[in-house]
Amino acid sequence: MQGYIVFLVIFTAIYAVFGLGLNLQWGYTGLINFGHVAFMVLGAYTTVLLSLRGVPLIVATMVGAGVAALLGLLIGFATLRLRTDYLAIVTIGVSELLRLIALNEQWLTRGTFGIQRFPLPLANFIPTMSVRILMMAVLTLIVGMGYWRWWKWLRRQVKDIPSEALLKSAPTALGYVASLGILVFGIGAIAKHLKSSNAIPDWGLGLFLVAAFAIVIVSYHILTKRVSTKLSAWSSGLLLVCHFLLAALGLWIFGVSASAIYDYDQNPAKNGLMFVSVVTLALIFWGLERLVESPWGRILKAIREDEEVAKALGKNVFWYKLQSLMLGGAIAGIAGALYAWQLTTVFPKNFEPLVTFNAWTIVVLGGAGNNTGTLLGAAIFWAYEAITRFILEDIIPLNESQLNAFRIMVIGLLLMGLMVWRPQGILGKKEELTLGR
Q1: Nearest to 366 by CA among 358, 335, 392, 327
Q2: Is 335 a residue whose pLDDT tops 90?
Q3: Is the terminal CB of the chain with fewer CB neighbours within 10 Å at N or C?
Q4: Which CATH class is domain 2-161+233-432?
Q5: Is residue 345 helix, strand or coil?
């Protein structure tokens, strides 16, 4: 369990960094980038190729980020003076072009054989107990700052709701969440029994699952509307319950991660990468928050809403767009280095368009133009990946490749539902929905 939690923490941090780069480009500046994985390709290959030639990892990573930023410069000069859709088309083409170059230029990238056995951060580092305690303290500080920001946000959401109403609504909301979990678990158990006993054909099992979950969703929608008319704070109570459950889950994951640092020598490569990934994510998040709250960030938002107004105020819109594209690309390049270290083998197949789709899912889910939302979106995305990887194979009669396709289809359906129910994302602001207008 400890190893798997470390695996999830690493991937969540990597995709959060990757999503932060896209959020800067699209969420804050309005640049539609459908080939974000191109920056990751350059960051990953540049880092591992330089490290194989003896370049220190931190220098190799910075060079990889610089090469990714240079790609953003080239794309920006070619497209940013044109309509927005040209940028989207060019980025798709560039991402596929780079992947095909990595696939065919074996003298440089080793093609389909991939690059293997390259240096990993902290893989040969066995810290003393005092250093381990210091590393755990750093993780505690990062998590503590995250919870502090979460608490401030939560207080703002419920500050106008009387505490008596929240106390009345929270138990009702907890009952709804618990009963929903029991119903879903019961449906899964029944489906698993029907599948193992071959009581009904596969198509019948599929119809049963669709009908059962449709009934649950419709029933809870009706009940929710009835309850919310009686308790005005019901939705806030549900918000509190869900957030506190997630906070408790986060503390458990933090405890497992801290114990992995304590037992560092059991798996130095992964435990060291987890520490590096979390610290890197924290530094990038802190830096981006400072930037987007500065006058520079406010100009980006103005460009996103209406670049003609920004031009009328004397701002060089092209230059600011170029900066955003380059900085977002550099961040994606750093994510590429972390991605390569996590996979330990770099293949061109690792950088298919699906990776960009995952980043868009994370940003849209968490809320565009909100860095905290990107972190939340990455956590939810990988929680979904972890849960469905082990549950769906027991209740849905599909092979592994079909299940992977089914999981992606479900993500698409969930995004469609989110666009109807909350188009601004979980933490996005509805007044900023003019994005991309």
Answers
A1: 358
A2: yes
A3: N
A4: mainly alpha
A5: strand
